[in-house]
Amino acid sequence: MADTKPGTPVALSAAAFKVSFTGSTHFDAYFSELSGITSEVEPVEYIAADSATGEPIMTKQFGKVKPPTVTLKRGVDGSGTIFGWHEMARNMVGAARLPGTLEILGHPESAGAERPVLATYYLHEAWPSKVEVGNLKAGASEIVLETVTFTCSKVTTTPL
User: Rounded distance, CA 26 to CA 110, Å?
Assistant: First the structure.
């Protein structure tokens, strides 16, 4: 049986993911899948010689910091908002970098209730670096999916 003491971390079960961006315009988008939030610091091998023995000493040091990415999937809604925003980034328009939030939404407690926010991530200077639509066959009954990768200057769990 799971430990239910107050303050004990519990694994999240998400019902949806909501991203909100503000800037020259404001928009919200809902997604059905979060493929991942990726943040990475590449390790670099550093080799030195021990000053007393001359033996090689190999250590791992902090290397290049890669910008964090957030990858989400949803059914295409036909609005073209994110694809238009991606075009701004392709044209290197500085206004394409927007602050935003990613909310992980839970299942409503009762019918008609709003979905509770389980966790919030703050996306700093985010822009859609990759947009992929579909893998669909004519005549198929599947939903057309849009996969969006947002690149950010940083992702935090508290606002700055």
Answer: 29
